[in-house]
Amino acid sequence: MKDYPDYYADESQLEEALSRPTPQLIEMMKTLDGDLILLGVAGKMGVSMARMAKRACEEAQVHKKVIGVSRFSDPKQQLFLEESGVQTIKGDLLNLDFIDSLPNVKNVIYLAGMKFGTDGNESYTWAMNSFLPGLVAEKFKDSRIVAFSTGCVYPLVPIASGGSKESDEVGPVGEYAQSCLGRERLFEYGSLQNNTPVVLIRLNYAVEMRYGVLVDIATKVKQQETIDLTMGYANVIWQGDANDLILRSIPFCKSPANHLNISGPETISVAQVAKQFGEIMGMEVKFSGKEADSALLANVAKSRDLLGNPTVPLQQIIQWTADWVKNDKRLLGKATHFEVRDGKY
C-alpha cells in the first residue's frame, strides 16, 4: 500500500484498503494454476481476503473463480461478497454431506475455526479445530491447501528471544491452543498420506480499525480502564498485509506440510503503545501489574525471506486506530484476549 491516508473516514474506505491487491499478488495470479475456494470465509479476515483475491485476478486479467464458503449467519456478508464477484456457497462445514458436495478446487484457503467461548464448549472447539481439518484434508487431497493456524501453538518465550521459529518445539497452553495443534497435525497427516501440498499459517495477530490487539488497547485507554501489563508484549500485522502474504504463500505449499509464521517484524510494548494512544487521545493511561519476562511471540524471518516485509508500518496503524476509536466509529466488539496467559478463551 502506498500514499497512506491520514485516517479512514468510514468502513467503505477501510474495506477497499483491506482488499487492495499488491503488484506481487497480481503477478502471482497470472501464473497460478486453478481457481480458489475459501472455507470459513465469513470470519474476521475471510471477506477482505476473498475480495483481494478476486480483485487481483481481475487486475491480472485472468479468469478464475473465487468461491467463499460459510454458514453466512450475517446475510450482508454473503451479499457483499457476491457484489464483489466472489461466488458463495452457504452451508455447515461440519456436515459431511455438505463437505462432499463442495466443488473440487485447486487452491484451498482454510479459515474455519473456533476460539472465543472455548472454555465450557470444548467438544465443539475440538470438532471445529481438529475434526473438520481431517475432513477437509481428505476432501481436498488433490488440491493445494493454505490452512490458518495460530502462534498459540507455541509456548510463551523470553521477550529477548525474538520469538518462536517454525523449527522450534510447540507447546500449546490450554484446550484452544491444543485443538489448534490438532488442526495442524490433521493437515500434516493428510499431506503425508496423500502427498497433498500444504502450508500452515501461524498468525500473530492481524489488526484493523474495528478489531485487534491495538483496538483492545486503544479502547481501554479511551474508556479509562486499567490496562494489565502482565502480557506486556505482542506481535501485530496490518490485516491487508496479512491477507496479501497469506494468499502469496500458495506457491509454498509442500508435502510434508510447510509452516510459516506471519506477523509484523516488531515486538510491540503494550505500555508504550497505550501511552501513545493516551497522548493522541488526550487521555490519562492507567496500568496494573508488571510485565512478565515471557510472551507469545513469533519470529518471522522465514516468511520475510520468502514473501518480503509488510507494507504498512506499525506507527501508521497506531495513528489510524487512535483516530477510529477516538471518533467512536464501529467496532466488531470482539476482544482478542491477547493478554491471556493460561490459554482459557
What attributes does this structure have?
alpha/beta, Rossmann fold, 345 residues, 15% strand, two-stranded antiparallel ribbon, 7-stranded parallel beta sheet
Mean pLDDT: 95
Shape: globular
Class per helix and strand makeup: alpha/beta
CATH domain class name: Alpha Beta
The topology string of helices and strands comes to HHEHEHEHEHEEHEEHEEEHEEHEEHH
Beta fraction? 15-25%
Please compute the radius of gyration using only Cα atoms.
19 Å
CATH superfamily: NAD(P)-binding Rossmann-like Domain
Instruction: Return the CATH architecture.
Output: 3-Layer(aba) Sandwich
Number of strands: 15
CATH topology: Rossmann fold
Side by side, the strands of the main sheet go 3-2-1-4-5-7-12
**Unreliable segments (pLDDT under 50, ≥5 consecutive)?**
none
